[in-house]
Each structure stands twice: as C-alpha cells, then as structure tokens.
Amino acid sequence: MHCALYDAGRCRSCQWLELPPEQQLADKMADLRSLLAERPVATWCEPVSGPEAGFRNKAKMVVSGSVERPLLGMLHRDGNPEDLTDCPLYPASFAPVFALLKPFIARAGLTPYQVARRRGELKYLLLTESRLDGGMMLRFVLRSEAKLAQLRAALPWLQAQLPQLKVITANIQPVHMAIMEGGAGDFPHPRSRRWRSASTTYRCGSARKASFKPTPKSPAGCTPPPGTGCASCR
Q1: Which of 59, 161, 208, 232 is disulfide-compatible with 127, CB 3.0–4.6 A?
Q2: pLDDT by residue (tens digit) across 18-27?
Q3: Strand residues in the chain grouped as ranges (E)
Q4: 163: containing domain
Q5: Residue 222, domain member (yes or no)
Q6: Are residues 24 and 127 in the same domain?
Q7: CATH number, residue 195
Q8: Model-wide pTM > 0.85
Q9: Helix, strand or coil, per DSSP, at residue 95
C-alpha cells in the first residue's frame, strides 16, 4: 500500500508498511508457530488476509489547530500536529465527513484543545461506520460542558449536510491526559430528539426545557434505539 504520509515521514503508525503483505503474514505465522512450539497442533490453517487499504471503520482523531483552521489527526511527541484525514486506511465514505467537520467546528465555535496551554474545549472526534448499513456515529469529546449549548444549536446544520450520521454524541473528558473519553456525556439522537447521558436522558422538546430520568449505558457508551443498535454497537 502506498501512503504519502509515511513516505514523507509525517506518520509512522504503520510500522511494517515497507514489508510486502505476504512477508508480514509469513512473519506472523512464524511467530505463532514459535509461541505454540510446545503445543501439539495437528493442522496449521492458512492465514486470512483482508484489504490493504480502506478497511478501518473507526477513526479516532485528535483535534488541534485553531477554531478557524482545525486539524484532525494526531500529535507528534514534540507536540506538533499532523492532519490524517487523507490516511488510506479510512474508507472513502469518511472523506466527505471529515471535509464538513472542519467548517462545522468553526461554525459551532468549538475551540480545539491546546495541550501545551491546557486551553480549549474540543479534544477528539470519534467517527464509527456500521458495516451493516453504512450508518455512522460521531462523538465529540469535550473538556467541559461550556460549549454544549453551542454544539446543540449548530447540530441541525450538520445533520442536514450529513444524513448518514445516525447518532451524534458529546462526551466530557476534563482530565489533562491522553484519554479518549471521560465518564460523563450528553448524547443526542437525531430521530428521538433526546440528549442521552451515561446517567441521564434529556428529553428535549426544546433546548430550554428538559426533564430527566436514568437510562442504561451500552458498552460503546451510547444508548441505541431499541432493536437497532448504533454503528459502534453492531
């Protein structure tokens, strides 16, 4: 697989990229045989390989840059950001979502979190695509609840532009550490118009009025509609 990011030395996440896929499989089989050398294995099956590119159905993006020009990707050890929206591991269906999320961040006023200064609100974006029907779940990981109202107000525009987003959530992660998600969050579901939390369901007839009641949390951190399951739960 050709990767311009790897060739340019901008990303080294795929450490075995220079090895041909056949060699990678052979090396893994050799390691497996070595680990099980003392076990009686009657038959060794041939390894099963998948596609070299476009196989990931989940993206975990660090948000950096500025609110006007956000970057989605990762931070190097020296703190410099790297935009990974062109990573060939993601399917083609992710590209239009990434492209619209950048102006949406500016539209909603979600200031990217600056690690060095410990300032800002938007830390991560987590995007998951269902292999069943192509529906997507998007999660905004925020430092606090300060921007939740702005996010709520801006969501109708995003949902109109990207109808494939079946579930959109916001998770609160206040700790200054490289932790993707915190223990609390508000989760809106486009069809039910409810804001869902790990411990509370917000029934939103409008953004100004809400009643509360407990609701269970699924292993993926969201509460899918009965009988369907969100993109991450399938």
Answers
A1: 59
A2: 999 999 999 9
A3: 58-65, 70-75, 81-83, 122-129, 136-142, 165-172, 184-189, 194-197, 201-206, 209-213
A4: 55-213
A5: no
A6: no
A7: 2.40.50.1070
A8: no
A9: helix
